[in-house]
Amino acid sequence: MPTKNKYIFFVFEQEILHLYVVILTTYILNQKSKNMVNRFLLFCSLIVPFSLGIYAQSELTLKSNMMFTDVIISHNGTSHQVQTLIDTGASVCMIDSTYAVDSCNIILPESNATIGNTFGKRIKAVDLNLDSISLGGFSYSTIRCFVIDLKSKFQQYTPNFILGGDFLKREIWEFNLKEKYMAKFERQKKNIQSIIKWKNHDDYKDAFLNSIYLNGKIAGKKARILFDTGYQRNIIPDNFGIIPNKEIEVTCGDIANQLAKEKTGLCENIDVEIDKYKTSLDFRFKNTKYPRMNSYLFKEKDFALDYKKKCIYICK
C-alpha cells in the first residue's frame, strides 16, 4: 500500500518549550473558570510554540533496496498524491504515460524528445513541465518531467512517478534509512561522520546529466562506481575478475527494456571501500562498463546528497 506523508513536528529548544507548556498548562487548569474558552486557549498555547520550530519529514518506504516516498503532483488545476521512486540514476523526473493521462489529466502532445537508460539505449518520450511538486511540506514549481510508457516495461512493478537528479539537486536532501524518513538537510544540527566526494557529467565525458560517480574499491580493486538508487541490485561488470559464489535467476528491466528473467552469478559479502567509508555488499554480474550500487550502500545509515558541492554526508 502507498504510504502517506508523515509530517512530524519538532522544536528548536525542546527543554525550554517543554517547561513553557508545563507551566502554562498548570496555570490554566488551576483557574476557577474551566470553560471551553480556557480549553481553546490551552490548545492554541500548545500548538503555536511547536509551529515556530516546525520542519517536515516525508516517510520513506524501502522496497527491494529502493527508496519510495509520497509526493503531490499538481498540474492544470488538479493535484494527486503518488508514491514515488527516488532515483539518483535518473537525470530528470519521469511519469508513466498511462498515469499521466488517466489520473493527472495531462494532455500529451506527440513525442518531442528521447531519453536514454543508463546503459545507453534511447526511447521516445514527451518532455514537459509540471506545474509543481510538493514534498515534505514544501512546494516546488516548474518541474521538468519526461512522460514515458513505464507500465509496458515494469508491468506490475511500475512506479507511477520517479524523482530524478534534476529535482533532487534543488535541495540538500537527507535520507535516514534507519528511522525511514526524507527531509531537508539541516547541517548545523547533524554530527557528520564522514564526507564522500563524487564526480558527474562535468568530470566524465561518458557520464549522464546529474549522475553520481564514486571512486572506491570493490574487493580491493579500484573502481568508478555509479550510485543508482533506482536499481534493485548492486552489479559489477562480467569482466571485473571476481568469482561468483553461486548462480541465481533475477528479473530485470528498465525504462527501455521489458522485464525479463535471466541467470547470473552472485558474489556475496564483498568488501567495499569508498574514501574512509567501509561496508560489504552482494553483487550480481551484468554486461556493463561500471559497477553500480543502490541505497543499500548506506544500509541503516543517515546520509544526505549535496549536488552543488558534489558530496555525500554520512551522519552519526
Overview in brief:
The protein has 316 residues and is mainly β. 15% of the residues lie in helices and 44% in strands.
Task: Walk me through what this model shows.
15% of the residues lie in helices and 44% in strands. It has 316 residues and is mostly beta strands. Strands 13, 14, 15, 16, 17, 18 and 19 form a seven-stranded mixed β-sheet that branches. The longest helix is centred in the N-terminal third of the chain and has 17 residues, at 36-52. It starts with 13 loop residues before the first helix and ends with a strand. 29% of the residues are buried.
Largest sheet: 7 strands, mixed
Topology as a string of helices (H) and strands (E): HHEEEEEHEEEHEHEEEEEEEEEEEE
Domain count: the total is 3
* Overall strand count: 21
* Poorly predicted ranges: 1-21, 45-54
* CATH classification class of the largest domain: Mainly Beta
CATH architecture grouping of the largest domain = Beta Barrel
Distance between the termini: 31 Å
Q: Count of helices?
A: 5
* Helical proportion, percent range: 10-25%
| CATH topology title of the largest domain | Cathepsin D, subunit A, domain 1
Residue fraction in strands: 35-45%
Shape: globular
In terms of structural class, how would the helical and strand content be classed?
mainly beta
Mean pLDDT: 83
